[in-house]
């Protein structure tokens, strides 16, 4: 094959055509790279602005929540203070009622004591009169022994009259004493009933719900105050964190604007559509200008040598070509025009695909962007070294994009994206396979990839922190709601139990008051204290008809024929008090007592025929009684039994029960 002369005009023409095509392709890929950088910056700006708006709205919402929380806390505090004042007023009224009840109780005690003193004074007067009669009778008896026979009969007559008067007076005194004892017993019973009622009312007022309610309200107020303070601190902390994130996003936005200013020399446009239209118009103008070739010659060669998109070209256009096409053949110009038209359409479609592909693959390329970018730039530099040294014009250095001069002694090289290098390899068809895949899109440099990765990492950490804070707040809110619900449920249960207990106590008090009033309206006749020998006698109904409430007295077991329970008895020889189990049996007609309620070891037995009297120990004659106010006496032919009941009601029941078997009381038969 004949060697081609490098000085021939045809070789120069072919060299110029190839250089022009390579220059156009390089400029087009540079525009695509800048367009992708602009799109990335626009997307980042939109995301940062959206994030800033979101953080601003979040700060506004947090401030509103802080204000609402403060207002709610103040409102709750005011309501609790109002309820507390109302409860304090109620406590003051109840305290006044308790004082009135105490005054009534004191007046009742004084009245009963005056009545007792009056009755005892009458008994003492009768006793003195009886003693004077006894002294007169004794004196007459002494005179009868010492008087002469003539006066003996007269003294006997007088002694007989004095004896009858003494006997009558003695019987009258005994009746008066018995009536006085009955009166004292009735007064004691009345005093005990009224005092028990007053004490019960006073206890109910003193243990009123208001005091507990006040303490509960104060505790609830303190708890609400603490919760409001904690919530306020949490919201303030969240707001401060959000403000810090907002400041970081603003700094990031400022960095993006500075970077955009370095790339374009201007500020961000208002919308992305304006930049897309500018890019498309630039491609159309480039496609229309490239079909015109300059004249062959040294001047044209000099112009292509200077058209490197670098620092020495004063024109704003990336291509410096004249509009002359006189030296090109017609078929070559048409072919180039067809190629450029298809190239423009392919670049438009490729641009959209590149944008979508880069957005889709950005998450995948974050971790390996820096390493692959270095590998790709090394491969591109190596693959284009031979082309740059032989016939290609100098490629555009990355310093041109960033408006910086290249370092001294450094070979200029292109900073095209992966898609640009792939398009150049396809168009030139140098036979060299690129070492980088066209699907691996990355940012302009390894430093940009690291910045993107750092920003994404910060965004991810911010999102994770936000999610953690929201989850923590929801968890605390849920726990607080559960605690409040549990507290409310416990309070409702306590109030319900207290209300039920109050209703139950009121029913018991009303029932007892009715029975007492009925008992007082129907005064018991003296036959209540006489023995009852009928076999069909119902002991329980008899005791209940006497006015006793057997159901509420747990110290006594009462049936139709028997009565059982614990009593404390004083010993006969050794005056010691011991607890015994007493059994009143109307079938066996005995009143016996055992060591315990198993009734295995009998300690003593009293037959009904031996029981003479049952009465209250009003003289306090029992030695060292455990409870003198609950002591009563059972008198028999042989001895006097002192026993102590566990409660006033059980004492009254036992006395009425034992009286029904007091068959030794035969004085009523005379």
TrEMBL record:
Polar residues: compositionally biased ranges: 417-443
InterPro entries: PH-like_dom_sf, PH-like_domain, PH_domain, PHLDB1/2/3_PH
SUPFAM superfamilies: PH domain-like
Annotated TM spans: 12-41
Gene3D superfamilies documented for this protein: Pleckstrin-homology domain (PH domain)/Phosphotyrosine-binding domain (PTB) (2.30.29.30)
Chain segments annotated as coiled-coil in the UniProt record: 45-227, 452-511
Residue segments, region Disordered: 285-304, 402-443
Taxonomic superkingdom: Eukaryota
Alphabetized CDD domains for the sequence: PH_PHLDB1_2
Stored PROSITE patterns: PH_DOMAIN (PS50003)
Every PH domain range: 560-663
Record keywords: Coiled coil, Membrane, Transmembrane, Transmembrane helix
Biological processes per GO annotation: regulation of microtubule cytoskeleton organization
Entry GO CC: basal cortex
PANTHER family linked to this entry: PLECKSTRIN HOMOLOGY-LIKE DOMAIN FAMILY B MEMBER 1 ISOFORM X1, PLECKSTRIN HOMOLOGY-LIKE DOMAIN, FAMILY B, MEMBER 3
Full protein name: PH domain-containing protein
Organism of derivation: Esox lucius (Northern pike)
